[in-house]
């Protein structure tokens, strides 16, 4: 086991990033024209990085498996993006955002990275406004803010319920400008199959043209992985169907350490599972918890009656409802962090108070908000004594202006009108805080290989606060990576073009082809989805919202056996030299079957509960997460050694000089 060098700058926390930018090496504009960079993934992190690096003068190649960067999963982020602008005058600051993020992550993230994130957050908003992102505005023209879980201020900028889409269009437009200038070569419908190392440095990738099936060699002086998270290891998640771990995992197999894989976020505000027919789950934005109140019936007999269709939720009076988050966490109420809200919902449903047919759902109710907004709207428009009907009508209009597209989406999926009856929600896998280990410069343990956004582990610790994913992705892409990558590339100004006919490219392409041939020739009888669903069931039941030693040990053995069976009995139809969705899925599921075992191994070794990692053996008397700061105050980074069971643990100790370590409380 080695101690990882995070390359955090010396000096006071608030000066570290400024000092670091002043100290690192730069590449002059004329030399940038001779340097190539590959970026895998064109969501917010990858798109922002590609646009900015190309604007600086580098030659950029981008790769995405979608038909357009506009389809990146970043588009699905609905509720907003955090920034410490303090537009509301409610006491926000860079330090407050830093503190909330470290606390929200249950004290398992680097102070220096998180403070830098807070420091550049304001720049992101300015950049996006300049691009024309249509953030919501108040009457006077100022940008509006709303609150998200885990904070006591309003710092979330939003564009109705489409924030991710609008931000992605901003990054995409910036990319298009560089494509038009010839500084970005865009390779859509291409999937990275492996990372190529030359003399120990990342010097290119092997990519597969997903339309023709052809394998291609692409070289560069550095490779940036911005390929998102690995939530689809659970099969059912809020992630896009194509979201996968392939780029990050193939880099891991080449020597990039994988950090904290067990840190997975369960989002409390999702449309519940309805049966085995589903292939994915749908997220309802956390922004809904700003105004929606979460509850279950106080009496089990009422819950049973609702499940059996004998009662409607609207028939229960206020006294018959248990607003359990407001009861248990009076300071934060419905805006507790996601891990806390998810466990609370699970506890109520496990106790028999669930409200849908499966008993795995709670209510998210907007009736109070509709009345509150209606009264305010009536008053401001001169109606001093409005009728109940007028109040409700006006209130619905206000709610529609804030959340209309989300309500419409809910109604299309469930065939229930959320203006008239409470939404039903339940936790689901959403975001992954683990990822490739990176230092302060966002470089992995492979020189020249960088990871940005959800693909790295760096900023969220054991739990991500809502609206921080967009913030981190854009911070990494627009304001961190363009500085730090130059320090590495400054040593390559005399290197020249990297040839693709070298033995390293030849050998890596052969390994990719051999793996594809092995999948195509397995000759089994079970579909890829069969294995993915089985893996997801193991992961959810034994590595999901709650974990224990016995379940994790069972999961490791079951995943290992499933992986062996996969390689013997999977059936991949079609051809390797043509468009083949089954082959694409097979490669991704093969990686998930390895990641899943490492995930369980990481969860088993961490004998504590923190954030999204909840071990049943380690909890307080009140059922809250019980950390062990003495023995587990570190990042667990795993080195690939062949089988996941052989992975070697490396630790990065976490030092807290600016925040006091204490039990996380939202009461």
From TrEMBL:
It is found in: Cell membrane. One of its GO terms (biological process) is anaerobic respiration. This is succinate dehydrogenase. GO terms for molecular function: electron transfer activity; flavin adenine dinucleotide binding; succinate dehydrogenase (quinone) activity. The gene is sdhA. Its main location: membrane. SUPFAM superfamilies: FAD/NAD(P)-binding domain, Succinate dehydrogenase/fumarate reductase flavoprotein C-terminal domain, Succinate dehydrogenase/fumarate reductase flavoprotein, catalytic domain. Residues 36-470 form the FAD-dependent oxidoreductase 2 FAD-binding domain. It comes from the Bacteria. GO terms for cellular component: plasma membrane. It is an enzyme of class 1 (oxidoreductase). Its EC number is 1.3.5.1. InterPro entries: FAD-dep_OxRdtase_2_FAD-bd, FAD/NAD-bd_sf, Fum_R/Succ_DH_flav-like_C_sf, Fum_Rdtase/Succ_DH_flav-like_C, SdhA/FrdA/AprA, Succ_DH/Fum_Rdt_flav_su, Succ_DH/fumarate_Rdtase_cat_sf.
């Amino acid at each position: 086991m080695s101690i990882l060098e995070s390359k955090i700058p010396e000096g006071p926390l608030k000066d570290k990033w400024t000092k670091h930018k002043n100290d690192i090496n730069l590449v002059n504009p004329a030399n940038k024209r001779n340097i190539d960079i590959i970026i895998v993934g064109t969501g917010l992190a990858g798109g922002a990085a590609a646009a900015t690096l190309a604007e600086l003068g580098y030659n950029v190649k981008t790769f995405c498996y979608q038909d357009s960067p506009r389809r990146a999963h970043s588009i699905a982020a609905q509720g907003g993006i955090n920034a410490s602008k303090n537009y509301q005058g409610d006491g926000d600051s860079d330090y407050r955002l830093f503190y909330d993020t470290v606390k929200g992550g249950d004290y398992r993230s680097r102070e220096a990275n998180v403070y830098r994130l807070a420091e550049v957050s304001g720049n992101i908003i300015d950049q996006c406004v300049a691009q024309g992102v249509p953030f919501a505005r108040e009457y006077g023209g100022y940008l509006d803010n709303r609150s998200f879980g885990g904070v006591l201020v309003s710092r979330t900028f939003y564009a109705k319920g489409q924030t991710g889409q609008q931000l992605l269009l901003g990054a995409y437009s910036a990319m298009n400008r560089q494509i038009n200038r010839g500084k970005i070569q865009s390779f859509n419908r291409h999937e990275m199959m492996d990372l190529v190392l030359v003399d120990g440095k990342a010097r290119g990738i092997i990519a597969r043209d997903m339309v023709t099936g052809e394998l291609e060699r692409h070289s560069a002086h550095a490779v940036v992985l911005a390929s998102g998270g690995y939530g689809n290891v659970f099969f059912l998640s809020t992630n896009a169907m194509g979201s996968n771990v392939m780029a990050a995992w193939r880099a891991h197999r080449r020597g990039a350490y994988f950090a904290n894989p067990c840190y997975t976020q369960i989002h409390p505000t999702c449309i519940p599972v309805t049966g085995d027919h589903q292939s994915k789950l749908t997220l309802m934005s956390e922004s809904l918890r700003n105004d929606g109140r979460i509850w279950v019936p106080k009496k089990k007999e009422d819950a049973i009656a609702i499940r059996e269709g004998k009662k409607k939720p609207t028939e229960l009076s206020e006294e018959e409802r248990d607003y359990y988050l407001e009861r248990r966490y009076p300071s934060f109420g419905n805006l507790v962090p996601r891990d806390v809200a998810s466990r609370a919902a699970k506890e109520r449903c496990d106790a028999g108070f669930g409200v849908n047919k499966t008993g795995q759902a709670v209510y998210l109710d907007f009736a109070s908000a509709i009345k509150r907004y209606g009264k305010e709207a009536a008053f401001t428009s001169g109606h001093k004594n409005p009728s109940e009907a007028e109040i409700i009508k006006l209130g619905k209009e206000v709610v529609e202006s804030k959340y209309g597209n989300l309500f419409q989406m809910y109604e299309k999926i469930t065939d229930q009108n959320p203006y008239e009856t409470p939404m039903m929600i339940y936790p689901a896998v959403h975001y992954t805080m683990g990822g490739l280990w990176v230092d302060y410069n966002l470089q992995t343990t492979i020189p020249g290989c960088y990871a940005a956004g959800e693909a790295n582990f760096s900023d969220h610790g054991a739990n991500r606060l809502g609206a921080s994913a967009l913030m981190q992705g854009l911070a990494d892409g627009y304001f961190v990576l363009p500085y730090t990558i130059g320090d590495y590339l400054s040593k390559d100004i005399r290197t020249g073009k990297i040839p693709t006919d070298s033995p390293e490219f030849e050998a890596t392409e052969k390994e990719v082809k051999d793996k594809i041939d092995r999948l195509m020739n397995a000759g089994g009888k079970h579909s890829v989805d069969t294995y993915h669903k089985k893996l997801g069931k193991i992961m959810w039941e034994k590595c999901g919202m709650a974990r224990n030693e016995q379940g994790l040990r069972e999961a490791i053995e079951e995943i290992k056996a499933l992986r062996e069976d996969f390689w013997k009995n999977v059936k991949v139809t079609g051809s390797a030299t043509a468009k083949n969705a089954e082959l694409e899925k097979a490669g991704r599921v093969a990686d998930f079957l390895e990641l899943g075992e490492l995930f369980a191994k990481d969860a088993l070794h961490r004998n504590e509960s923190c954030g999204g990692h909840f071990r049943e053996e380690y909890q307080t008397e009140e059922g809250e997460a019980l950390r062990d700061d003495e023995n587990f105050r570190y990042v667990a980074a795993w080195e690939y050694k062949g089988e996941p069971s052989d992975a070697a643990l490396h630790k990065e100790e976490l030092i807290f000089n600016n925040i006091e370590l204490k039990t996380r409380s939202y009461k």
